[in-house]
Amino acid sequence: MGGMQSGMLAESVSRALADVVTTRGTLEAEARGLDEAAWRTLRGLGLAGEDAASLQPEEQAAVVEAVAHAGALVPYADSEALARFVAQSAGIETDAGETPALALASPDALSGHRIPWGRHAARTILAFAEGGRNFVAYVPTAELRLVEGANLAGEPSDKCGVERVTARERREVEPALSVAGIRRRGALYRGAAMLGAAARANELTLRYAADRKQFGKPLAQFQVIQAYLAQMAGELYAARAILATALRAGEAGMLETAAAKVRIGQAVQVVAALAHQVHGAIGFTQEYSLHLWTRRMWAWREEFGNESDWARELGSAAIALGSDGYWERMTQ
Amino acid sequence: MKFPDLPADDALDAACKALRAEVRAFLREELASGDFEPECDSWLRGYDPAFARKLGERGWLGMTWPKRYGGRERSPRERYVVIEELLAAGAPVAGHWIAERQVGSSILRHGTEEQKQRLVPPIARGESIFGACYSEPDVGSDLASVKARAQRIDGGWSISGTKVWTSQGHHADHLFVLCRTSDGGGVKQRGLSMLIVEMPARGLTVRPIRLLTGEHHFNEMIFEGVEVPDSMVLGAEGDGWKIVTSDLAMERSGPERFMSTVPLLREMIRRAAELPGDSRLQIAIGELASRFWALRSMSIGVAALMEQGREPAVEAALVKDLGTRFEGDVAHAARQLFPMIPSLDSADPLENFAAQSILHAPAFTLRGGTNEVLRGIVARGLGLR
């Protein structure tokens, strides 16, 4: 049942964005830090406000993946799936019209902290630990004195210019909303996003290999190229399989999420490299669209923990569980 | 390429959980009484007929087969549970492996009632060992080109030719032999048949093929007029190619394609506790664990697709390609992360498992379909060929 719902949601997102998102449009939007038309379209589908934040993780991941696949320069994952979800769960009200941002940082130690899409947020939700307890609060973003920046995908990544701010509406929250819990959720959604971008890069590559002829035949007929395309298919299958496992494990799935963020990070390394290799030089031009997705893959693997961070976490947990304990945990 | 929706099934989950507990309890007992030594690549190397019979007694062989042929009519996912527990423990499952994994199912799919009744129950009991005679000295991957011939004789066939890479051929009581029974009207594949040979057979010579470690698991099987009655042809004359390709698809799909070196990985995890705070070690183990977790997810997905009645040849090929490379990476990881020298003579399981794994690693990406051939299967599945 969840599967069908997710499928339908993803379909409607893809269809709606296909009409609105273009390579040229996205590039121009990077200068502004937002594709307003794409964002309006998503909100028009009802994917904003409480409804969006209340989607189950599997459905949410499907939407995030579809938005990534479309290459839309919009803050959906960060504002709806994360910031608004956290605010809502903590009992902090948000307007459907605002685009909240999220920072996993204490109101007393903000300096240098990067906030995805920060410049578009009237309010930034903070999640932090203090004295062994977990809290959520918000601050008016203007008080953060953000310095604008961008990640490799051209998405806003704005740096805090102050060290401390006064937190508003501070609420104590359950472990699921601890920094670790939210970070897990963020990593999971970045995994879904990377998968969407990787799938799109793969589609572009398959089409290019079929259409582009050299030495009298399509690239797809060369054995070396076929091996590359087979390898890409394998990485995508692995990524999709581990993401499904992590989604199924839910809040109890810290280790599954760790495995997913690591494995999907490894997968996008291969997929991005091979996509560019098969495309030849045209693939690394600005004019051709491939970079919209390879830059997204490269950007997102850094966010909410990179492969080393999560591998260290999974590895330490495995070692602490011991050989039998780890096997039991993995097969539970 | 389809990714299966694994529908929630509480009854199946509960059954799997209970089964897993049973298998673990059995393995704990066996290990405690010293009945077997864990090994890497145990499904190739661990020959133990007594162990096979114990598995058969517990109904853990041929689990998915119909009850009237000795099976228990359980699901592929339950079978998966048993297999992965045995492999994780490095248990000696080599004797019955080929028979249970693919031969039994092939007979059930293509055989006569008489063949099913006579040949399948002993496999389920762990009493029968089948050797697969497919490859030849001149024919490795390109099985359609096999040269071994079967001549028509009164009431049957006479096989002549040489087969290689028959694991447990020196212990087998029966052989599956892929041979040419006609020219197939000009189409190579159509002239192939699968014949079942009962051992010992007059005219058959078995010669060991030793691995670079000196181990004997594989054999050269030389057929000089080995006679086979009509009742021992599997399916119809000319069905050989169809039988062997679906046989190979089954061979490719299981967890043994990425778990051959899991006993080493588990030993690495165990020993890592002696090197606390070693960040490089934690990261390396985490990376390997991530790949393992993904492979397991993919492989269970293949089992689920098979449960849904599909034949996921592309998905199985992808699991094997990624899985066998993972096995090799585990093999070579330990030596860089721990102070040790890999050695088959070492009493230290870490050094021993590392040596077993390293020395066997070249085989991983070649056996059961080379990774290069598998990528060709995937390419075809993607519509590129």
Summarize the topology.
The complex is a heterodimer of chains A (332) and B (385).
Chain A (H helix, E strand, L loop, with lengths): L1 H17 L4 H10 L3 H9 L5 H4 L3 H14 L5 H15 L10 E3 L10 E3 L6 E8 L2 E8 L16 E3 L8 E6 L5 H33 L1 E2 L2 E2 L4 H27 L4 H26 L10 H11 L6 H24 L2
Parallel strand pairs in A: 1-3
Antiparallel strand pairs in A: 2-5, 3-4, 4-6, 7-8
Helix pairs in contact in A: 1-5, 5-7, 6-7, 7-8, 7-9, 7-10, 8-9, 9-10, 9-11
Chain B lengths: L9 H23 L9 H4 L3 H9 L18 H13 L5 H17 L2 H13 L4 E4 L15 E5 L2 E8 L10 E7 L11 E7 L5 E7 L5 E14 L3 E2 L5 H13 L3 H4 L2 H11 L6 H29 L5 H25 L11 H16 L6 H11 L4
Parallel strand pairs in B: 1-4
Antiparallel strand pairs in B: 2-3, 3-7, 4-5, 5-8, 6-7
Helix pairs in contact in B: 1-4, 5-6, 5-7, 9-10, 9-11, 9-12, 10-11, 11-12, 11-13
Features:
heterodimer, A: 332 residues, alpha+beta, four-stranded mixed sheet, two-stranded antiparallel ribbon, 11 helices, 8 strands, globular, B: 385 residues, four-stranded antiparallel sheet, 13 helices
